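TA notes, week 10

Several of you asked for a full example with nothing omitted. So below is the full record: structure tokens for the whole chain, then the designed sequence directly under it. When grading your own attempts, check the secondary structure regions first.
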């Protein structure tokens, strides 16, 4: 079950944390994984870990917010490794400068573009680069790593990020319906709070999660392995909450 042998998977932003976990799990299920990161040295580290575990992986550095960079990289991957069967849009954050929680009424317009660029345009750029070849081959899987912040309002100062994630979730529903008859599925995972290198930062929040802990990169990898599989062919256009049981609606 959930055998990914023979599949080529591109995971964006997979040089660390969640994306690296997704890449490791897909490789362990047999996929050849193209590990992307804007910081290619991080992608190299993920590739080393996958190869040491006996998997197949290659690092490719590009910026998901730059369509020309994405398109030429996808062309290069296709020529060197083969067409992309599985795209996981994981790259995302608060923009080029990371997350800087700010109440919207105190924010400057210049700070809005980064989160929307990476969390929405990054998803659209990568999807556009792979969707036609997937449809022509009659098989494809597009998975976007979104967030609870794209589904509900939160009073933690992340409204542009929530706008980018919410936009990506809406976009994915349209992508799913437009391409459903071509054998391509498109789904989003809305993550809850993930663990951090220093667990004391999230310890009190973790106690409020019904399962009693924050998420691990592997938790997200397993959900991706399912959605990427043959067995998930009838699941499309969905936003699946992977959050330890936290209430989001
Ligand atoms: N960490 C959480 O609590 C949490 C919660 C909900 C959703 N998410 C989502 O999960 C995903 C991964 O989160 P994370 O915590 O592992 O992030 P992270 O910041 O630790 O890692 C993201 C990686 O993406 C790369 N990246 C950033 N911009 C890029 C770009 N333009 N092109 C290519 N690569 C780029 C970074 O170099 C980094 O290695 C993100 O989409 C994030 O929004 C995370």
């Amino acid at each position: 079950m959930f055998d990914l042998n023979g599949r080529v998977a591109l995971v964006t932003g997979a040089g660390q944390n969640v994306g690296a976990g997704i890449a490791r799990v897909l490789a362990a299920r047999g996929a050849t994984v193209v590990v992307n990161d804007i910081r290619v040295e991080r992608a190299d580290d993920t590739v080393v870990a996958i190869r040491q575990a006996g998997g197949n992986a290659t690092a490719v550095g590009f910026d998901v917010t730059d369509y020309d960079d994405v398109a030429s990289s996808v062309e290069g991957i296709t020529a060197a490794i083969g067409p992309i069967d599985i795209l996981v849009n994981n790259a995302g954050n608060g923009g080029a400068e990371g997350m800087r929680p700010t109440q919207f009424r105190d924010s400057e317009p210049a700070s809005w573009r980064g989160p929307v660029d990476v969390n929405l345009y990054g998803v659209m750029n990568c999807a556009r680069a792979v969707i036609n070849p997937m449809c022509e081959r009659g098989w494809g899987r597009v998975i976007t790593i979104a967030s609870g912040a794209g589904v509900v309002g939160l009073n933690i100062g992340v409204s542009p990020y929530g706008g980018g994630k919410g936009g990506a979730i809406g976009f994915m529903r349209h992508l799913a319906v437009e391409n459903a008859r071509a054998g391509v599925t498109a789904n989003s995972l809305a993550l809850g709070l993930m663990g951090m290198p220093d667990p004391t930062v999230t310890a009190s929040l973790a106690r409020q999660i019904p399962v009693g802990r924050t998420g691990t990169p592997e938790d997200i990898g397993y959900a991706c392995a399912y959605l990427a599989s043959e067995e998930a062919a009838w699941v499309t256009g969905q936003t699946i909450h992977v959050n330890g049981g936290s209430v989001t609606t």
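The mean pLDDT is 96. Use that as a sanity check on your answer.
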